């Protein structure tokens, strides 16, 4: 690594070195390097100690510029050090030096953080432990706590974790900072202590009910985080089992044209009508015409903030209503 | 449609040509990507003069650095060469203020028999010396192709003899001399152990062979398997051996002092340390050498580092497996030389 850094310094002016740095981390990722290798690469190329800190998991990887892994000991993180976010919440990569990062160091920081992010995604959310029986037990509120904790040990779940409910009925338990993206429709429960996982599971299943295919026929998010629902979870529960007039009005409007639901969803979730038109790939004036039609069928104006809120709630309850607990 | 032959002929495919190779360790793979832009996997004879040019990115270690803050005296000396040949230059590093005679490492540098000098690879040897209070003698042997076999190895042997005969003056314990080297230097160190055994001049305490270059036949499974890949592939190896042996390379009359894998008797050798990487040309010849020492009733310690290329610890000294490999060498030396 010293050798590599020397070559970078000797062979290239700064711009060229930056390209080499990008190549270095790309190569590490391609070869499926672990976190330690990535932090080591950052330390060697930046020429100062590098430290990855994941507070939720109590994980600290600290490597000196010569590649030696050394415990942080008493050295607390100095908030003035250059850093980059690896993952939410608060997983950061630091370069231990006073003063701002140089050009190459900034590239090192950015690329190393991106590489570490990929590793976390690969190792923490894409590789759940395959033991469905233990997972079922772990999230079963009716099971004795001792049995649930034993299941957690079998699954290697020790710190805070969250439940992910997938379309099709599968349930996963992942680390608190796992990033859930793409793939199946998923409801993601809040991060909780191991003993509280049944509650996380209940909210994950509720969040799953609010997901959609993300198509024109079934517009909406494929992944919903229970953390971000706020009061909606109360509303969904209160509405369960009762007819909701606004949902019936939405169903009526949807039946008047194949584009109605997608149009209303775009308007409800975009920050402006112009953005909504872009999302739908239609001209602004086309959107205006369609919206006029949809509003007539719906029975209320969706241009005002209050009307938009009413529409958002109707869309949420419409999705939730398709699958009752 | 298909036919089966009861005993397939011995095809080249079975010898490793085109065989899938063990993946490189991620940190090694990343460094190899940079190296590939600087150094081809296949070195041919026409590149020898280019490789001998000083590389500004890799400056030679200085006397001051060798001295480790004044804890070693560093001198360059001319010592008697082989019969009828010029004197041999050696770098001698002696620990300052040793209370009793110290153990010594006779170092033969690497460089495929065609490049390098007494300072090549010496930094790691000085790490051992600082840690274990050792004397170091590093040999500036003459290089091939200008000096073919047996010139290079006889230069090294002359330096070994000088060290043993002047042990008292140097403050060295003559019963605790270890020969050590990497790559071509590992092959030379192995040859010195054979020569010392056969000639009976020096009783070596050990031989530390770092991914040694042992077999001029260049025809093992790993040599074929790693062709065109990593560092020092089959073509490079052919370049080095042909420089040393000329038309004799791979033929019936190659001396074990040139290519220790040719030795038919590996009994009576000092304890050996052999390390090599899984993804390099020398893998199979080095494993075979350790195995044959055991089969001959000898002592050997063998380490095969997964995913390394040839010289991985020099190109990526900070990498995880490099740190482990270097620590293993030091641990073996510490055990070997413990009072």
List keywords for this structure.
heterodimer; A: 325 residues; alpha+beta; Arc Repressor Mutant, subunit A; 3 domains; 4-stranded antiparallel sheet; 4-stranded mixed sheet; 13 helices; disordered N terminus; B: 339 residues; alpha/beta; Rossmann fold; globular; PucR family transcriptional regulator (chain A); PucR_C-HTH_dom (chain A)
In short:
The complex is a heterodimer of chains A (325) and B (339). Chain A is built from 13 helices and eight strands.
Order of helices and strands of chain A: HHHEEEEHHHEEEHEHHHHHH
Pairing-aware structural class of the strands and helices of chain A? alpha+beta
Name of the CATH class of chain B: Alpha Beta
Helix content of chain A: 40-55%
Are there runs of chain A of 5+ residues with pLDDT below 50, and where? 1-9
Largest sheet of chain A: 4 strands, antiparallel
Q: Which pair of chains has the greatest number of interface residues, and how are they split between the two chains?
A: A-B, 30 and 23 residues
Strand content of chain B: 15-25%
Oligomer: heterodimer
Task: Write a structural description.
- Chain A: Pfam families: HTH_30.
- Chain A: This is PucR family transcriptional regulator.
- The complex is a heterodimer of chains A (325) and B (339).
- In chain A, 50% of the residues lie in helices and 11% in strands.
- Chain A has 325 residues and is an alpha+beta fold.
- Chain A has three domains: 124 residues, no CATH class; 90 residues, no CATH class; 93 residues, PucR C-terminal helix-turn-helix domain (Arc Repressor Mutant, subunit A), CATH 1.10.10.2840.
- In chain A, helix 5 packs across helix 6, helix 8 crosses helix 13 and helix 10 packs across helix 13.
- The radius of gyration of chain A is 25 Å and the shape is globular.
- With 339 residues, chain B is an alpha/beta fold.
- The termini of chain B are far apart.
- At the A-B interface, helix 1, helix 2 and helix 3 of A face helix 1 and helix 12 of B.
């Amino acid at each position: 690594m010293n050798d590599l850094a020397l070559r970078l310094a000797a062979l290239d002016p700064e711009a060229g070195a930056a390209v080499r740095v990008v190549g270095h981390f790309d190569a590490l990722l391609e070869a499926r390097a672990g976190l330690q290798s990535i932090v080591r690469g950052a330390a060697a190329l930046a020429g100062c100690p590098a430290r990855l800190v994941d507070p939720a998991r109590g994980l600290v990887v600290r490597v000196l510029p010569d590649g030696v892994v050394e415990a942080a000991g008493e050295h607390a993180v100095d908030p003035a050090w250059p850093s980059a976010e690896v993952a939410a919440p608060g997983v950061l990569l630091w370069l231990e030096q006073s003063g701002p990062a140089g050009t190459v160091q900034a590239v090192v920081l950015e690329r190393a953080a991106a590489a570490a992010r990929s590793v976390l995604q690969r190792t923490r959310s894409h590789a759940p432990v395959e033991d469905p029986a233990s997972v079922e037990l772990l999230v079963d509120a009716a099971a004795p706590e001792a049995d649930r904790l034993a299941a957690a040990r079998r699954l290697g779940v020790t710190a805070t974790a969250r439940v992910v409910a997938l379309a099709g009925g599968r349930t996963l338990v992942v680390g608190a900072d796992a990033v859930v993206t793409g793939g199946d429709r998923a409801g993601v429960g809040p991060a909780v202590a191991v003993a509280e996982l049944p509650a996380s599971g209940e909210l994950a299943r509720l969040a799953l009910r609010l997901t959609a295919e993300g198509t024109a026929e079934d517009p909406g998010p494929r992944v919903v985080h229970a953390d971000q629902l706020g009061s909606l979870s109360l509303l969904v529960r209160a509405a369960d089992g009762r007819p909701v007039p606004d949902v019936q009005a939405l169903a009526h409007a949807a039946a008047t044209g194949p584009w109605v639901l997608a149009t209303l969803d775009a308007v409800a979730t975009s920050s402006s009508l112009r953005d909504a038109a872009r999302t739908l790939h239609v001209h602004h004036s086309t959107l205006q015409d369609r919206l006029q039609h949809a509003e007539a069928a719906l029975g209320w104006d969706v241009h005002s903030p209050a009307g938009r809120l009413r529409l958002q709630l109707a869309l949420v309850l419409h999705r939730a209503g398709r699958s009752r607990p | 449609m298909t036919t089966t032959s009861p005993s397939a002929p011995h095809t080249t495919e079975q010898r490793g040509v085109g065989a899938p190779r063990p993946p490189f360790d991620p940190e090694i793979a990343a460094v190899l990507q940079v190296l590939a832009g600087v150094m081809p996997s296949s070195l041919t004879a026409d590149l020898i003069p280019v490789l001998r040019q000083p590389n500004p990115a890799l400056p030679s270690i200085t006397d001051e650095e060798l001295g480790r803050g004044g804890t070693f005296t560093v001198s360059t000396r001319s010592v008697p060469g082989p019969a009828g040949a010029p004197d041999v230059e050696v770098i001698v590093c002696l620990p300052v203020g040793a209370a009793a005679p110290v153990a010594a490492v006779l170092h033969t540098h690497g460089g495929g028999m065609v490049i390098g000098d007494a300072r090549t690879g010496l930094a790691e040897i000085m790490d051992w010396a600082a840690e274990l209070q050792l004397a170091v003698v590093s040999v500036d042997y003459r290089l091939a192709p200008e000096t073919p076999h047996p010139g290079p190895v006889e230069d090294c042997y002359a330096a070994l003899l000088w060290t043993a005969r002047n042990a008292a003056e140097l403050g060295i314990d003559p019963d605790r001399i270890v020969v050590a080297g990497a790559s071509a230097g590992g092959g030379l160190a192995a040859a010195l152990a054979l020569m010392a055994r056969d000639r009976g001049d020096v009783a070596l305490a050990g031989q530390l062979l770092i991914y040694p270059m042992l077999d001029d036949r260049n025809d093992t499974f790993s040599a074929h398997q790693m062709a065109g890949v990593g560092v020092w592939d089959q073509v490079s190896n052919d370049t080095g051996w042909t420089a040393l042996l000329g038309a004799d390379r791979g033929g019936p009359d190659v001396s074990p002092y040139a290519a220790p894998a040719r030795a038919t008797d590996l009994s009576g050798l000092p304890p050996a340390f052999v390390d090599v990487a899984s993804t390099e040309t020398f893998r199979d010849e080095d494993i075979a050498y350790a195995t044959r020492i055991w089969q001959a009733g000898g002592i050997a310690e063998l380490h095969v580092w997964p995913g390394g290329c040839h010289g991985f610890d020099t190109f990526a000294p900070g990498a995880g497996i490099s740190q482990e490999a270097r620590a293993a060498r030091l641990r073996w030396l510490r055990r070997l030389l413990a009072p």
